[in-house]
Amino acid sequence: MKSITLFKTLLSLSFVTVSSLSGGVVHAQSNLDAFVDSNIVGKERSIVTSVLQDIPESQRGDLIVIASDGQIYTNKPELKKEVIEYTKNKEGVFEDSDGNKIFPPKQDRPEQIQLQSPLNSFSTEVKVDEKGQQSSNTLAIEGNAELIQPLVSQVPATGGSGPYRRVESYNSYSWASANIYLTNDVSDNDSTAPYYDTGYLYMGGWGEASNAVDAGFKHNSLDNTYSPMMQIDGTPYGFTPRVASGQTAYLETYVGTNGNFIMHAEYKDTTGVSRSINVSVYAPGFKQNGANIMKRMTTMGQKTEYLTTKTYLRGAVWSNARIGASTSSYHVWADSDTWQFQSYGNRIGLNKTNASNETVSILPGS
Predict the structure, then answer these.
(1) Burial class (CB in 10 A: 0-12, 13-18, 19+), 155
(2) What CA dihedral angle connects 265, 267, 270 and 271, to 10 degrees?
(3) Which of 174, 181, 226, 333 has a CB 3.0–4.6 Å from the CB of 255, allowing a cystine?
(4) Where would one find the signal peptide in this protein (predicted)?
(5) What residues form DSSP beta bridges with 156?
(6) Residue 157: its pLDDT value, please?
(7) What is the per-residue pLDDT across 49-67, written as a single tens digit (0 to 9) for each?
(8) 304, 174 in Cβ contact below 8 A?
(9) Does an H or E element contain 49, and which?
């Protein structure tokens, strides 16, 4: 089946983008070589074994390396055909080689403002009206869900590419994870102009140089499935095959060697087989020392923002979110880790338990 996705799943896959790996170092560790096919030799073998060092041993598997120049390296020859690359056309829409069109979310980095007291000390949330203004009236939607946002929001939510729910950390971290229920209650139209409404559930963040990475799942309108996704500073990558909807997947994102941003995901494919992927992309500006903003996003991405479209994504559950400095040093994501909770557009239904657990719905516009 031709891919119509912004991003492609792999049966079990690792994606890595590396900046200055040139093949000059050959790693002797047999535990790394064991993950590399014997047909992978020379520069390519050196690159993929170097990247494997950043991945915990229990998570190592198939590996795809997307280097800073766009070159793709893998630890198994057959994995190269699983990568979908996109070209931006004159309309500003990304197309694959089959002419399938996609449009990824915006990646603007929010500016963190230094406050006299930490923003997380103002953790009270209030109900707001459809314009995002504080209201004494309860705006009830979808049962107990309500439109809510932080009482104090020094940096307003900005739009331009559709409604979203965003949770952002302070710029002090380099690792985050969460369980995500990949809801099957979705109606979008990811390849249809002019809006290209597309559901996304993803994590990622911004490095200290405003570099951005999105890493997670894109919904596929044609068959109500998902695909793993990566976007690096506005450049999307896609992967096949498909991830089943209606399941809870595990997503982990972290900074490896400076310049490498890694995604690890665990899920079941459409045949019910458990799979895992590791994705690492070259993302200059991301640092292992924790000077990064980490995020969680539920988005109905649009090329041309139109907040009254009838598309929806209901009942996406984020649970057991954790955050920290590395794969071995993390804790439950708390209010004290959180810079901002933001809901943009008048279509966000939210049932929030705490900073680590919430159910998000993007409702049909009206």
Answers:
(1) middle
(2) 120
(3) 174
(4) 1-28
(5) none
(6) 59
(7) 998 999 999 999 888 888 8
(8) no
(9) helix 42-52
| Nearest partner of 177 among 215, 210, 141, judged by Cα | 215
Q: Which of 138-147, 227-236, 280-289, 348-357 has the highest mean pLDDT?
A: 348-357
User: In the structure encoding, which two tokens stand for residue 342, read together?
Assistant: 């933001």
Query: Which two structure tokens, joined as six digits, stand for 205?
Result: 């963040």
Enter the tokens of residue 161. Answer: 């590419």
Give the tokens for residue 357.
């657990």
What are the distances in angstroms from CA 328 to CA 55, 138, 179, 354? 12, 43, 18, 23
Instruction: Name the residue type at position 98.
Output: D
Buried-state track 283-308, b at ≥16 Cβ within 10 A, e below 16: bbbbebebebbbbbbbbbbbbebeee
In the chain, what are the domains?
Answer: 13-85+102-107+114-362 (2.60.120.1270)
Distance of CA 314 to the CA centre of its chain: 18
Q: Is 221 exposed, middle or buried (0-12, 13-18, 19+ CB in 10 A)?
A: buried
35 vs 23: which has the higher pLDDT: 35
- What 8-state DSSP symbol labels residue 347? T
Q: Over 50: is that where the pLDDT of 168 sits?
A: yes
**Cα three-residue angle 46-48-49, rounded to 5 degrees:** 65
